[in-house]
Amino acid sequence: MTVRRVALVTGANQGVGFQVAKELVANGVTVLLGSRDFARGQEAAETIGAGAVAIQLDVTDSASIAAAAQRVEDEFGRLDLLVNNAGISHASQRDGDFLDDYATANRASTASLDEIRAVWETNVFGTLAVYQAMLSLLRESADARIVNVSSGVGSLAANADPAYPYHSMFGPVYPASKAAQNAITLAIMIELESTDIKVNLVSPGFTATNLNGFAGTESLEDGSREVVRVCLLGPDGPTGTFTRWENSPIPW
Ligand code: NAP
Predict the structure, then answer these.
(1) Collapsing DSSP states into helix, strand and coil, what is residue 226?
(2) Residues recognised as catalytic
(3) Which of 52, 138, 177, 186 is most buried (most C-beta within 10 Å)?
(4) Hey, what domains does the chain have and what are their CATH numbers?
(5) Confidence of residue 138 (pLDDT cuts 50, 70, 90)
(6) What is the pLDDT of residues 67-78, one digit of tens each?
(7) What's the 19 CA to ligand 1 centre distance in angstroms?
(8) Would you say the CB of residue 60 lies under 6 angstroms from ligand 1?
(9) Which of 9, 38, 124, 209 has most ligand 1 atoms within 8 Å of its beta carbon, as the pocket-test mutant?
């Protein structure tokens, strides 16, 4: 008898997280769809159907994270796949053109410190907090993997090159939060390299989602491909990678 893998995807009620959850379920994985608004998670789980289970999870709320970990423990006793996907690009209301606003908001001299803190709270500390809470459950799996969903816009090596297309947009709000998320992921990789738990860092494509005011140029399905591919790697699949579609390495 094949035992179904159990996955938790944070921020799975819409966007890349929803697409990844849907495709994991289609591949026989039981997926807990993390959603800060439980009702929206339930709606998303119902849309996907059997194998999708909503779970309340706000990655900035330690009580919510602890309750989610307890629920996974009580219902499954282990976690095989953790996908740290929840993320935000800005915290304040934006009404203008997304890319114009993005460039302005990310200027180091003028970026709001409150805005930076709010974005880092979700993208950086949220990723680390969920990792810390779920690690003991991942240790109970015979084939555990962590997939952190970051972005090529957080690559320090790429951004340091003036020829990189997003070079002029690098700044302390979203891009630097993704650089910090990459750094946190490297720390997790190093901590776990003596264990059997695999850790991968991935970047979706520039995907039309709420995060970028639907300015992304790739469909949800195409933009999420690398995340899905890495989530479905088997026990012999690689660890310690940072890639975009298809298995193309991104410099750190
Ligand atoms: P999205 O459609 O806006 O989805 C983001 C998800 O994260 C939503 O479900 C959102 O919940 C959730 N979320 C936000 N704050 C949260 C919190 N505190 N606790 C729990 N969940 C929270 O954006 P997306 O494009 O799919 O982004 C997913 C990931 O891909 C992010 O890490 C992003 O940085 C990365 N990424 C995206 C692109 C792209 O082009 N779209 C490119 C590279 C990387 P609500 O629905 O409640 O807001």
Answers:
(1) helix
(2) 174, 178
(3) 177
(4) 6-249 (3.40.50.720)
(5) very high
(6) 999 999 999 999
(7) 12
(8) yes
(9) 209
